[in-house]
Amino acid sequence: MLETWLWKGAGPRSAHAFADALDALGVRRQSGAGVEYTTFSASLLPEGFAAALELYADLLMRPHLPDDAFESVRALALQELAALEDQPPRKLLTRLRREAFASPHGQPVEGERETLERMTPEALREEFQRRYGARGSILAVAGGVDPDEVIRLAQKHFGAWDGEAPEAPAVRLTKPHSFHLKQDTEQAQIGLFYKDVPPGHYDFYASRLASAVLSGGMSSRLFTELREKRGLVYAVSASPGSVKGFGYLTAYAGTMPDRAKETLRVLQQEVERLAEGVSREELDRAKVGVRAELVLSGESSRARAGALARDLFILDRARGLEEVEAEVMDVTLERINTFLASRPYRDPWIGTLGPEGVTA
Amino acid sequence: MSVLSFREATLPNGLRVIAEINPEAKSVALGYFVRTGSRDELAGEEGISHFLEHMVFKGTERRSAWDVNREFDEMGAKYNAFTNEELTVFYGAVLPEFAPRLLDLLSDLMRPAIREEEFETERKVILEEIALYRDRPHFVLYERAQAAYFGRHPLAKPVLGTPESIARMTRSQMVSYHARRYVPGNMTLAFAGNLDWEEMLTLAEQMTRGWAQGKAPRNHPSFTPKPRKVREPYDKASQAYGVFMAPGYAASAVERYAARVLADVLGDPDNGRLFWRLVDRGLVETATAFHHEFEELGVYMVYVQGDPSNEAEVSQRIAEELQQLESDGVQQGELERAKLKTATSLVFAGETPLSRLFYLGLGYSYTGRYEALDTVRRWVMHFETFHLNELLEQRPFTRALEYWLVPPGDA
User: Fold this and answer.
1) pTM of the full predicted structure?
2) Where are the alpha helices (DSSP H) in B285-330?
3) Which residue of A has its CA nearest to B25?
4) Which residue, among A1, A358, A2, A6, has the nearest Cα to A183 in the 3D structure?
5) What are the strands of the beta sheet with B28-34, ordered from one edge?
6) Which residues in chain B show pLDDT less than 70?
7) In Å, how far is A73's CA from the nearest CA of chain B?
8) Looking at residues A173-202, what average pLDDT do you find?
9) Residues of B in contact with A284 (CB under 8 A)
10) Superfamily assignment of A178-354 in CATH?
11) Where residue B33 sits, what CATH number does that domain have?
12) How close A94 gets to chain B, by Cα (Å)?
């Protein structure tokens, strides 16, 4: 709610004037609350950088948070929450995180109906005071601007910002278990949640490459076994995720209810079969894929800015593409297979959604 | 931007080859743009264009399905394909050193084996894909509204087909559809990024030499929109989903850029007229407008999604906004905003070879011309209010179809 409210006027400008000022610079913007941080991003031509930075300083340091916009902000939040019902995969994966984390990391980004209905402008302003401060915030810039100029402008516009970083909660998990959400959908949704190594861990890139073997390209194991050989699914994937200090792997598949049992069984079997190791060819393909992705994403300045900010948040330092590439290339077959054997993916949290429950 | 150069050639078999070359790019993207889609399907073929797009990846005389997947991944290619009403596109982006290999693979795929066993497996995948989209009400809305708007015109056909049409489809139907539509004269091979033009052209000529030639005509029946309002319940919708469709301009019409800017004035997601009338007031979660272009006609689309209890008021407010836009025209300030936004998004569309490939290939497939992004950007920046107001004199929104998909209890 707070993220939406921030856009309702800031600094000397009303909401409308603020939007016009950004548009006059041709700024394409995106913002959104996540599990651990809220992101405000802007893509624009380099000429407008200084002016845009000043506007974003207003947005983050001097928002009006006006009373008269509060009810529409609440209405939007309630609609966003309700719309989750119409997106079964997202609904399931949201619930899966919530089932796995005992700590606040499992709380849904969309919030809960009761909390949204009870929220008051005063309480939300207090949250703003508590959360929006210089410490704990990150500014990342990529593209055709001079780094010294970036520092100078950041100092100018954000130099007076203070405030403490809110304390990050420690990760706690529940005991692995299964659950089912009943909903009258065409496809049953299946999600698995596995513990994994966190970013910064010695085996982090071994785990990333393992997930690429599972789900990197169309020759990956999940695509081959579930879709190409058996025709069980259209969409199947495994995606690594992380919060500060903790990594996890989520596997997902959607299929018709009468084939859900078999799909769950094959999906789980393929993830857990990683413990037996990967072949040299699989590792080579995974490496090529990860490297190509690095080069291709390096061509988009928006993707670069996002990666730098995330590095700073998770690892407390930003890395160049070459450094990441070197870490990926360092993972040998022996190293990845030792990792997979010693920390096998097993005992997942299992979530399903559909007209009836699914057991493997 | 001055480093960019454009090249084009037509091979003896009729295949057009085009390239926008940027020697400074770190990657190269290439793709086959086949002028075929759901509008070209005969009775009984509903969904065959899209099904064939899947079968293309299932191997050729020289390659098994596994070989295809493995080779793409060995190159670290970012690749995929999509099918719509008018085009089927196969594309990939790789590091420059892999360009010849990617070209060899994609070219080979254009002559797929379509093996019976894989046809049966893939049929199940297509049925899953249809089921997946039925769980997404906004997709169902677009499909149904498009069917209602286009009526008996071929653009009314669903791209995915129906579970029934897919269940009945045979391999021999697909083989004959492929022979009829994937003729070189009906295809464009496009490149963008860091490549050696002479080398690519020579390779393309060698690889496509044996392709049988032929004509692939397309019907353009006349079309007159019938304005009306439709409300339909959908048992998988918990929110209300609405779309307005009104006549716009074709993909080769000079008016199309002005129409895009006009749609942006109305429906820019952060600052359009509908945003302030609807989203800012908390009436809907999303309100956007865009201009969608087909071969011989175009459509303005307004899309909203939100709380079903606000539907009547939202419908009323959109009608008022459309009417006001038509009667009072566009104001200078909002025009400047929308122009700059459109121009900036064109710059970002040019950031990577892959996004340039789409822009290049789609544009050329429709117009047969190369329009540099930079030229279009300057062109857009020259628009005056009268350019947009001229389009409004046609009163497009008085001929709009309004279509709502609502939760069952609310219909």
Assistant:
1) 0.94
2) 311-328
3) A299
4) A358
5) B5-10, B16-21, B187-193, B28-34, B88-94, B78-83
6) 1-2, 410-411
7) 6
8) 97
9) 74
10) Metalloenzyme, LuxS/M16 peptidase-like (3.30.830.10)
11) 3.30.830.10
12) 17
